[in-house]
Write a structure and sequence with these properties.
186 residues; mainly alpha; globular
């Protein structure tokens, strides 16, 4: 097994754990649906993050994650940063209510949105940094999408406005849908 295959395996496990956490929380909300005061904004983020994970896994398949270009352990560690941040984002997007809590998704989103959005913004920065360090950075459509997503996330952090959060999540979802539907299967 070469280092790139080894890296892809570890990265896939980290990202898979994030999906497991996110979908496990979604299942728990559905199972306890009578107790839940639903909010569709975090659910829109779930769809968006799922699209992001699909895009990330596709980049792993195409060897665009930088693992094959890593020449030092430090570069390999840097390549692990985006999937770790993606794990934290997917694990933190939905609430983890306990049995005694008031299961109010809107309130929980308001309390946790800064951590989630900041993690997502750091994920965008880490993908840029990884591309720069491994020499795969190019100013192409993907780079402009990353800058656009990062800008939206920063503006969401600065404004703290639900309408702007809705605009941001829908714009990011649309950008990811365009990205996924235009990528060619090789």
């Amino acid at each position: 097994m070469d280092i790139a295959t080894h890296a892809v395996t570890l990265i896939s496990i980290v990202v898979g754990l994030g999906l497991t956490e996110m979908f496990g929380k979604l299942y728990r909300l559905i199972r306890n649906r009578k107790r839940v005061r639903w909010d569709f904004l975090p659910l829109a983020w779930v769809v968006t993050l799922f699209l992001l994970v699909l895009n990330f896994w596709w980049s792993l398949f195409l060897r665009m994650d930088g693992s094959s270009q890593a020449s030092t352990v430090a570069e390999f560690g840097l390549i692990l940063l985006p999937p770790i941040l993606l794990f934290v984002a997917t694990a933190s997007v939905l609430p983890d209510f306990s049995g005694e809590d008031d299961w109010d998704m809107r309130r929980d989103y308001g309390e946790q949105r800064k951590v989630f959005i900041l993690t997502f913004a750091l994920y965008q920065v880490s993908t840029f940094t990884t591309a720069l360090v491994t020499g795969t950075m190019a100013w192409d459509y993907l780079s402009f999408v990353r800058v656009g997503i990062f800008s939206l996330l920063v503006s969401m952090l600065l404004t703290n406005n639900r309408r702007w959060d809705w605009f941001g999540v829908l714009a990011i979802m649309a950008a990811l849908l365009i990205r996924l539907t235009t990528q060619v299967v090789r």
